Input
Amino acid sequence: MKRHRVLVVEDDAAIRQGIVDTLGFAGYDVLSAGNGDDGMRMAVRGGYELLLLDLVLPGHSGLEILAEVRTSRPTTPVIILSALGDERNRVKGLTLGADDYVVKPFSVKELMARIEAVLRRSPERPSDVTQVAIPGAVVDLKRGEVRFDKGGTADLSEREMELLRYLSGHRGRALSRDEILRRVWRLDPDNIETRTIDMHVARLREKLGDDPAQPHIIMTVRGKGYKFAPR
Output
């Protein structure tokens, strides 16, 4: 059975060690960092499936790390662990893309339940798609490169790769803008303008050679959103 790997970024040594021990006993592989600078470096580098993130850290703050992770690794699940439990901070963390927010002090049982719930939801984000075939080209999602049959390439940004990965992983299904914001951007659609989806789709179509007037790869579904249905 696959062992999930969790990155814990927490400056309180006792809390950090308690989480590491609990996760290890439960069968998880664990990475940890005790400050924001190490946490930022490890979070951006990847190699884990879930990030447990304190907000108040020496060096980079937890919110700075969260913002960078959402830019560089937009589908990675993140749970905030913080003593800042007021509504303003919870809303801010969730709006920036955290999957859950656990207020200190918390019980081990509560934390493990939250971790298991977030990891159960994470398969909704297709991550095993490495190549996508489209008419006239192949997209390498590991390298972020579109290779055209007639020669030439186009580079995709990390966000464009994640968007295409999600669309292609749900081939033929109409995906709403709200769903895409939640599953790819990990943002609450009530707190952000969904026009950002349209702009990213437009750029992605351009790089894939998809005619915006008569798209044949990423279709617009009127009143809904978009559908990946190459023809």
Summary: The chain has a mean pLDDT of 87. The helical segments are 13-25, 36-45, 62-72, 87-95, 108-121, 158-169, 177-185, 195-208. The chain has two domains: 5-124, 131-228.
